[in-house]
């Protein structure tokens, strides 16, 4: 059984192939604000990670299914099925780390990784000075709340994660579409896991995109990822901090995110001359701070 479903292509441009991979609790509809612009010149591939528990029965309790490696392998299978090589992957949240692992296993598939609101580890680690944003007790309490009343947990968690009341309804709807058992096991995989070592092996150029006020993945995580990537095998990496709120900039700050993605595509997507652009800093309301 594959995790991906509802694969579709938008646009007929030939400048780049852009793969949009959503995060935990989401679906491909959360990219809709970006599609008109991205699809003008590029081939855009979207899909849904199937969190609905379509397999049913004992498969829901098969904890071997819930690994970042499995998601990475399914992403590879999807790109092979679509005949993709050298794609620009925009991996949101959990899909960013799955994309990192996939790029190590199959470097021919990716020309650039955009790691959007990513975190390799959510739990703080005092012994090595890592600040992920959460203590173990807080994650355990969250998992207990999910287990006891999933709907109530969603209605409390989503508004805080989104940060913008107008954008809450589509995210809440997609979260509630998850099978509670699948949602819980995936949450254990994501929030209790540690994918930090995977960063050092990533050779594809990366752009880390974080939101200034994201309760799930604070800027300190982006700084850590930048360090691990640039001291590991990465050919190049830069970091962008969007001045906005929440874990879903594709909904809350779509124009700012689109500006970042268009810059990446000019440099790495096959539509430009391939030269590195100068690092820039844009200061304005809702501006973007780009640092290398």
From TrEMBL:
A Pfam entry, by short name: Abhydrolase_6
InterPro entries per UniProt: AB_hydrolase_1 (IPR000073), AB_hydrolase_fold (IPR029058)
Annotated family: Belongs to the AB hydrolase superfamily.
Species whose genome carries this gene: Urochloa decumbens
Coiled coil start-end: none
Residues of the AB hydrolase-1 domain: 18-256
Protein name: AB hydrolase-1 domain-containing protein
SUPFAM superfamilies the UniProt entry points to: alpha/beta-Hydrolases
């Amino acid at each position: 059984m594959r995790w991906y479903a509802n694969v579709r292509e938008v646009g007929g441009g030939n400048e780049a192939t852009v793969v949009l991979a959503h995060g935990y609790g989401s679906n491909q509809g959360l990219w809709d604000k970006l599609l008109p612009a991205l699809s003008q010149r590029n081939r855009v591939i979207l899909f849904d990670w199937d969190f609905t528990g379509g397999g049913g029965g004992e498969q829901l309790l098969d904890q071997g299914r819930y690994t970042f490696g499995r998601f990475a392998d399914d992403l590879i299978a999807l790109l092979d099925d679509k005949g993709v090589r050298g794609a620009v992957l925009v991996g949101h949240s959990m899909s960013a780390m799955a994309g990192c692992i996939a790029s190590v296993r199959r470097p021919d598939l990716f020309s650039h990784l955009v790691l959007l609101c990513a975190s390799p580890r959510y739990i703080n680690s005092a012994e090595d000075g890592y600040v992920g944003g959460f203590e173990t007790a807080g994650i355990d309490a969250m998992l207990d709340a999910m287990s006891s009343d999933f709907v109530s947990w969603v209605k409390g968690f989503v508004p805080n994660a989104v940060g913008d009341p107008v954008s809450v309804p589509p995210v809440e709807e997609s979260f509630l579409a998850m099978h509670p058992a699948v949602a819980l096991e995936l949450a254990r995989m994501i929030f209790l896991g540690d994918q930090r070592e995977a960063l050092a092996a990533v050779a594809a150029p990366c752009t880390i995109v974080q939101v200034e006020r994201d309760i799930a993945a604070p800027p300190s995580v982006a700084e850590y990822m930048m360090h691990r990537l640039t001291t590991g095998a990465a050919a190049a990496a830069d970091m962008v901090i969007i001045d906005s709120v929440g874990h879903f900039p594709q909904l809350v700050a779509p124009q700012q995110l689109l500006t970042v993605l268009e810059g990446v595509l000019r440099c790495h997507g096959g539509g430009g001359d391939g030269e590195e652009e100068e690092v820039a800093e844009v200061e304005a309301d809702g501006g973007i701070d780009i640092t290398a």
